[in-house]
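Thread: quick sanity check before group meeting

JM: Hey all, I'm pulling together slides for Thursday and realized we never actually wrote out the predicted structure for the chain we discussed last week. Dropping the sequence here so it's in one place. If anyone has concerns about the input, flag it before I start.
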Amino acid sequence: MQFTDSHLHLQDYKPNDAQQIIAGLRAAGFIRVVCAATSPADWDKVAAFVEAAPDLVVPAFGVHPWYLSAAPQGWQTALKTRLECFPAAWVGECGLDGLKAPSWDGQEEAFAAQLELAREFNRPLVVHSLKAEDKLARFWRLLPPRFMLHSFGGSLPFLRSALSHGAYISLSPAILRRKNYALIAAAVPAERLLLESDAPYLSDYRDIPDLAAALADIRRTSAAALITRVNQNFEEFCYGK
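JM (edit): ok, ran it. Output follows.
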């Protein structure tokens, strides 16, 4: 069976593990994975994974709210240049964070700059949202046509609002630890569902088959059918319908 992982951080594994991880992904049946950057400090590392495995790794370049204060002046211009150099790159990981980010200072401006680039270049956008549902809702009409809420763990009303504005919803194994996971898992339309590991933090890429099986059980379908649909969604999200 073939799998996709819409969000992981290959650059955050131990440097000596890089080739081993790529080999492991292939052996486990992964055909496409998105390696998400979080700050300009790791853009080159993400680019190196793309160069090492261009058929497997899709890059995403952006500035995460946790690392915004450390981003150098002019990062927006540097990000634009990076997107010009990588025509298949997504924008992100970016977003809004009311839990772990040092402060709200500059978060909305940075997010707005990145979604504007996603619109300008017609690229998929990877959105991080943590304790920021009300603030993110202000951006619904400004988001690009293809945007994904990664490792979704929000409320059911927020999910419905996001879906009504065209969001794709990426679920990680972390969703299975939430009290409302069955409601969330059942509420995401089949054509908007993506799967991710958020490795090496929330889980391991090898957990995705088990996640697919758990979601399929809730949704009363087979794991094979769910994975086939997710892989199709991944391609549509990457390149547009």
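AS: nice. The chain has a mean pLDDT of 95. The two ends are 24 Å apart (CA to CA).
JM: adding both to the slides.
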